């Protein structure tokens, strides 16, 4: 039997069916007697519902709302907390909040009913921005202060002492905007009943999250509901918790109607009425000596969470834990606050809170370096954290940090130092640099304490079936996990199956999120495979294991102290631009990156992840502007919220450093989010140098560059 | 829920009859109407009026050079066909080749782009620069109107209830210098955020003709004859001292609401660059 | 006045007698069950629904069926088992062009339209040809390389 080595480039298992147009995404499914559902949504950001006028419903048509939740059920979606309601009831808290579902067989009739459903509101003043929330505009939305969640981290001597001793304090506020996922496959789900059980086919990252979240609506247990993930056309975090918001109302509808019901968003709905990346406002006060060396940094970090918590507290934690970037400063005090506003709840998006603070710290350090006349690469590299270095959570880096080597790779390839010296500030040409990291998997001991991932291998004859709840959403996990198993089993990858998960058949291996799948689930599968290999001759059997956290790395989730992450991915990026002085159009002429992802499981998959993550990050920095005015998103289509095309950025040069992670499968660490985390800051640095401007807010389309030019 | 009826006429006469009798809106490629009337997955677009799909009417297709050197472009000619035609003037070809992306250019037509009269439309801007005329047809015959007069404002035209756009006629020009630039939200497949065309004829040190047009700069394409006349018939060496007044006149012509500072400033910088090419007596041709 | 719209899809005759403004994508996906044609945006901006109409790449979500009179429509289903289609699909597979896959059938159609008219494209030609096909996963590099791979592997095939 041919062996699949971990360093062989393998063909993706799902590629051919997808390219042939045979893969079935949620919109491609239909069932006999299937009905369609349309969401009736709030059209005001904040107010009381006075009355709902639904037109006379023809036979076979239904309006499903909070009133249809049975007595033993509760109108709540259980994400991390249970604050997000399945149906708005009495009041509405954001534009697009689900009020009800119109269900029936004919979409033309449903559209007519939807267009003629009128809701009377007593409108209240919404708080939309972070500043609105802090000012309690319209009165508090949550508690007394609109602070949905908060935390702080402290390292070194108290910052007040440091400020007193400092020669100068450099203060600036940096902001990032909303970002929309724009997975090409919009959100969608279909519910039906099979053998007396509710079965949901859904485009989702975390099938086990869905069943946990919705079961309580009908007073059921999660096991009473079967979730079948269908081929998922991109997610990027946008299908981590958000599928619950579709599946909840569908479940309530199903309990009344008992026919297959399909709910698939069109692009406008997906753009206007889905979760986004948290906007942020981050103020750094940095204590400096007279040479410009950093004595300590204080950071005040606000994230706009929208109307419900969803995953915001965890997002905020990650943001705070990444707010000192890849650096070891003598002292720091970081305070994070997630504020409630009347916007669509913000939720997971590739990077999960880290990109905002990483952009902010990188750009802040660029500004300090420039102020004191240092090259940013040289200046920043003085502070690179090293193995054993203390993190902002008073834990330690437990692995080798190869940033100097990574910087050398991309600086050589891009001829960075020559260009940085030659292209004068304001010359129209600029080259920029950034460094970043991403802590792999759940924070601290979350994997062991909260997730408790299980994974299973089943041997039947010569074939082996992988049973996990982890999902393929485009990142290549169905291929990577098969490769890990094949390598550990010593068999050919073709002998291994790994279908899309069905929660009634597979153990819960935790959410497909947090760059944890390869690192954590891959490790469990590797361990299962090693055991299976030893017992190979026993016939047909299965091996199931639970994740075991390495000993000796304490974490206290109540104080946020300890080793937050055991394996970080590390990154360095250089971006070169030329700016048209007539039009402020930025042309990116070169992109160079280097990443440490431990040992790569498949170079081709990694190549694709790097390219895609970097372009998403460059879109975030340059063109992806999502504005919210008075609670309404202004960009509603792919022509006014633009993401990069094939013409916007040049071919990338990419490098890896090999740095096997001792607890990862075949040395692998997470990488899916890392590759999003830093190119934005390198781009901004390059544009700043090309034009001699100071940027404190992304994205920076031509209009914003013009504004910055005026401030020079 | 009474749905309006939509039609596919077989002949131009049938189309004119539908236009007159039912006020049916002509759909050429569909890139505007299908989006404006969009109702979601599995539902046919509706715009509240009957629509007639005239895509197959041969009478409205093709590009021809007329005896006087003018170029006539049939209303159903696509952006891709215009971009590839060597007899179409340069400014118009540039605009056509920068419209959307490949698939859109294969569908979108010149008639539709004019009839839709969006301030962000790509083709009206260079056509108005070139003093193109639009040919309108009805049972009463044909009439020709200057495109600049035909488009009255955002989404407003002088198309009569019984008329269909038949073609566009572009008079011949021989410019010494030409300039075209479209700025979108990204490098391709983008709606225009701002566009500018300029052209000049310089003979023996004298600016004989000078014109410019700004797209996406107001409710319709902006041409300011007043500003243009400040340059026309002036010696090249006088231009530098006229530039500030000219730019002010142009800035005055473009709509204050549609033009935030960035677009105003970019327009001024591009016009300055174009005039600089004239003043520096650069090699005749396209100004970059 | 045409009461029926007659056209061909992947070589098969189709006669449509409903509303001529019905979107071609709905006829293909819902009536003809050609689910390889994806709907990504519904307004001709993303290219997921790309098909070839009379030799030209078009987005089927903004084509009314009434505009298909007498047309030849080719979808991914119509090319995937042809030599050219297989050449493209295996190049996409081998070149790592496919991640979530939702944009890929449309991307394959855009590549097919390109190579039919330009068998030896440059990297820039390829980037222009797919600039109306949005991919959120790959950053495009591996798609571009896969199309160039199909061009070089196909060689003579694309001259036919």
Task: Explain the overall architecture.
Chain A is α+β, with helices and mostly antiparallel strands and 712 residues long. Chain A is 26% helix and 24% strand. Chain A is built from 18 helices and 28 strands. In chain A, the strands form seven sheets. Chain A has a seven-stranded mixed β-sheet with strand order 3-5-1-12-9-10-11, sandwiched between helices. Chain A is globular and about 75 Å long. The model of chain A has no long low-confidence stretch (mean pLDDT 97). The longest helix of chain B has 19 residues. In chain B, a hairpin with a 2-residue loop joins strand 7 and strand 8. Chain B starts with 11 loop residues before the first helix and ends with a strand. Chain B has two domains: 114 residues, Uridine Diphospho-n-acetylenolpyruvylglucosamine Reductase, domain 3, CATH 3.30.465.10; 110 residues, Enolase-like, domain 1, CATH 3.30.390.50. Helices cover 37% and strands 13% of the residues of chain C. Chain C is built from six helices and five strands; from the N terminus they run E-E-H-E-E-E-H-H-H-H-H. In chain C, strands 2-1-5-3-4 form a five-stranded mixed β-sheet. In chain C, 66% of the residues are buried. Classes of the chains: A alpha+beta (712), B alpha+beta (288), C alpha+beta (160). At the A-C interface, helix 1 and helix 16 of A face helix 3, helix 4, helix 5 and helix 6 of C.
Q: How much helical structure, as a percent, in the residues of chain B?
A: 25-40%
Indicate the radius of gyration of chain C in whole angstroms. Answer: 15 Å
Gyration radius of chain B, in Å:
20 Å
Helical run tally of chain C: 6
**Global morphology of chain B:** globular
Biggest interface found: A-C, 56 and 54 residues
Average pLDDT for all residues of chain C: 97
CATH topology of the largest domain in chain B: Uridine Diphospho-n-acetylenolpyruvylglucosamine Reductase, domain 3
Low-confidence stretches of chain C: none
Strand residues, percent of chain B: 15-25%
Low-confidence segments of chain B = none
So what's the oligomer here? heterotrimer
What is the count of DSSP helices of chain B, taking H or I runs of 4+ residues?
11
SSE order of chain B, as H and E? HEHEEEHHHHHEEHEEEEEEHHHE
